[in-house]
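Retro notes (design track)

What went well: tokenization of the new backbones is finally stable.
What didn't: we kept losing track of which sequence belonged to which structure.
Fix going forward: every design gets posted as structure first, then sequence, in one message. First example under the new rule, 165 residues:
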């Protein structure tokens, strides 16, 4: 939605929206930043009621792990660097997605990491996949910003998955 310039309003009509519910616990940490400029938080929302994968969350619980933050109005701002993303998450009290590897890009390494059987924060839950990012940040012709997601094949092939319903 954010890529299309669409955003959810924090209002009574949207009070039960799963994406807004994941952000509510962090609102106080975000208020001072939002007074200055808009921000877009990109992350994985998970928990009970998101998909069939609960990642150890109890009924009604949801969470978010951040993998990117954009500061400013769409097209006129900037993406946080890896170090600045750490600082942002610390300031607002959010957690990043688990960092599984830092080093030179290797397609083979990304395939290996994305095919782990279980999640790093719930060893009973299948891993959905991994996000890769270039450090320092860069763009590629025809692709745009180099930030990719590798999906675990077992995630797609599991029985009773809900993301395609």
């Amino acid at each position: 939605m954010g890529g299309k310039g669409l955003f959810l309003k924090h209002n009574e009509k949207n009070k039960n929206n799963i994406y807004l519910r994941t952000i509510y616990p962090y609102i106080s940490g975000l208020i001072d930043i939002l007074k200055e400029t808009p921000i877009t938080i990109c992350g994985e929302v998970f928990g009970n009621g998101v998909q069939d994968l609960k990642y150890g969350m109890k009924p009604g619980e949801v969470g978010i792990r951040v993998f990117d933050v954009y500061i400013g109005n769409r097209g006129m701002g900037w993406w946080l660097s890896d170090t600045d993303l750490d600082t942002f998450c610390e300031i607002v009290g959010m957690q990043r997605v688990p960092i599984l590897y830092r080093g030179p890009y290797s397609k083979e390494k990304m395939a290996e990491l994305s095919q782990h059987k279980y999640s790093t924060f719930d060893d009973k839950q299948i891993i959905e996949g991994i996000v890769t990012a270039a450090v320092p940040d860069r763009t590629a012709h025809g692709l745009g910003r180099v930030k990719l997601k590798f999906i675990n094949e077992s995630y797609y092939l599991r029985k009773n998955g809900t993301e395609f319903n």
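Added context from the reviewer: The chain has a mean pLDDT of 79.
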